[in-house]
Amino acid sequence: MPTSSSVPAAASVTANVADTLLVEVAWEVCNQVGGIYTVIRSKVPATRQVWGGQYCLLGPYFPQQAQGEFEPDDERLAFSDDPFSRAVAAMRALGYSVQLGTWLVTGRPRVVLIDPFQAYPRLDAIKADLWEHHGLPMPAADDLLHQVAAFGEMAKVFLQLLAAETVPPQRLIAHFHEWMTGVAIPALRREQVPVHLVFTTHATLLGRYLAMNDPNFYDHLMQVDWLAEARRFNIEAAVTMERAAAHGAHVFTTVSELTVRECIYLLDRIPDAVLPNGLNIERFVALHEFQNLHQQYKAKIHEFVMAHFFQSYSFDLDKTLYLFTSGRYEYHNKGFDLTLEALARLNYRLQQSGLEGQVVMFFITKRPFTSINPQVLQNRAVLEEVRETCEAIERQVGERLFYAAAAASDDNRLPDLSTMVDDYWRLRYRRTLQSWKTSALPPVITHNLVDDQNDDILNFLRRANLVNNQHDRVKIVYHPDFVSPTSPLFGMEYGQFVRGCHLGVFPSYYEPWGYTPLECVARGVPAITSDLSGFGDYVLQNVPTHNEQGIFVVHRQEKSFDEAAEELTDMLWEFVQLNRRERIMQRNNVESSAEMFDWKNLRVYYDHAYQLALERGGF
Question: Are 528 and 552 in contact (CB under 8 A)?
Fold first, then answer.
């Protein structure tokens, strides 16, 4: 079984680059719809560094999603003689609509985008072919599966034409990510197209469904009847596609040792290699500025916290720690349940300890909502009115104090500043504060949910009475929308919000990789992960001093929920007892460890998979 702890050599692949073309195929090319978008996008600079002009990305063309990320380059077709351009020209000559251009991300790679809907007139024939030759069922009324099948046909045609433009000894590798593009693999093998095929599953589709619905998923994994379970969740077609891609590829890979087990029991194939995910760390590097950026964005979070809490009661912001978790709303899989239990225990410990300070915990996820809570918006607006009133008084007093100082004779005493404020500003100040203060508790959620009564996070908070009482030492802010600069509540980017926080908390139960803690590390923010996330498992195997470097791993494998909750509580308890100097040192250690997760270092795993594919293709 492959292990992620042993780094393969890349020299042999580097030697083959000159006579090899590489096409990466993903649904997320110029299409930000999921976590694989981060994988593909962030890996581009490191991949381009080795493959240069021999590298191209292939994905579906959705004009709305692509308009901000894709730059067409039809001039290349007229003046370039490279194989990718010739294949696009040949496909257009057959009457297909194909886009050739540049993805406007770091590295600016060449991309080919193909509209899947142009294949819809032949959809019945495509579906019949998938069933007849590969046993792939296709429901009659599932538009996503129809798009997947249509794009698979388009990808097959493009790769056939590209293979025809590839003159030996030049060879062609096609690397497919996830089942949504992997549907092209069986047909490419059946028609013996000379392409060396790599398929990566980032998370088995059935595994994600099972983990969400079975609290003992890992214990039951060996007994799963994949077909019966796929039918139970109504995902038989997609799971069958995933299995066909896994078995049809020359090289089958996944992203962590954890998902290796899933692949064995749910897809019936042992992965040939593990490809851990990284980041383009250069995008996050702030050198000596990262501590200053923490202060800058923490000040913006202070503004939100003042607006959210101070109308009811106040506390010392200098003695307040900001913790957060984020990601898809998967209450069990993402470890939201474990995080809430540990927060409730931490709240009790802090109340009993007599330690000073507060903890504000942010839950950043995405849930259906009707609007932002009007009271939350009003509090923000009134606080801004308080600020403007204070600044006006400050200007008035400043001008009058300066005049008084300049006109002073022998009396150097400070004059009575209150006499320097007009009655208008006194009255406005008093009335603003009267409209600002309230006896109501600060809300735990910032938005009005569509289904408030059945929300797991809210129901836990109600049961635990963790509802932002003044005596609670752990305060909760549940923000069921992603943070963005256009948000009237935060007004900053997600990355800026992360930099302003003190700790990220991600003790996932099911997480094939997990970018959120890695993104914290890249920004110099300590993070908690779990040994049931691919990232956490990789850290345990490859970073022996991870605690000293601000990366903490909760042990959830073969541990009860209660044991894991107590370990997480202990981690949080130790963190809140650090003084400011210790936290600064910890952030320094975190920031210095980020380099080991750069794609420049982790790309070698991909190189190994490509070398295996070249050896196995047999063309």
Answer: yes
